[in-house]
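Support reply, case 0932

Customer input (verbatim):
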Amino acid sequence: MKCGAQSLCRWALAMVCLGAMVAVAAPADSAPDPALDRVLGQMDSAADKFRTTEASVVWDQYQKVVDEHEEQKGKVYFRHTGNNEVQMAADITDPDQKYVLFNGSKIQVYQPKIDQVTAYNTGKNREAFESFLVLGFGGGGHDLLKSFDVKYLGHEAVGGMVAEKLELVPKTANVRNNVDRIILWIDPSRGISLQQQFFFGKSGDYRLAKYSDIKMNEKIPDSVFKLKTTGKTKFISTQS
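Our regenerated output:
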């Protein structure tokens, strides 16, 4: 079954729920091993310099119960505002046009075909939610240790580059019920994600994101972070 909008909404809602639960995560454990510390340090350095990122993306949503892959393609954009808040936008063009926007305290998913926006409020958990949103895109490396058990998995080739592979396991059981673990493939020269894989609970479902044509710290028009709705657009708000 095809469920492009449904899977985007599920992802958005899962991220809101994760933000709420990460807010009570346990303190960081003892210092990581040297290889891991090196990679986290690279991410810290990149976070200090981060302003914007633009990239092409392919999202592969896998549903184990029906053994089906659903692929979506488009562009993603991240930027830090003047008050150091994070904004994110995704312009999905294939197979159906959709827009995802995180701007302020909510995620909005716009489906032009039905002219409808579904909004998911992050509320008081905004800061925690942002920590998930920016995994490998402007988020500090050592900050990961506050909410995850992080393991260094070595090197792996991704898109013609040698990436550093990290496994993130949420510290709290409630978070693991939603996202069992996350795999990040980090570009060591820029400290950013080339790939991300979220495993949802124990279902066997996952979302694999592959990034390419990555541009960093270039000007992104303000219009990218605004939904192009019509006068007849229907708005639905979901409280988390």
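We compared this against your earlier run and they match. Two observations from our side: Confidence is low (pLDDT under 50) at residues 16-29. The first helix runs from residue 4 to 22. Please reopen the case if you see a mismatch on your end.
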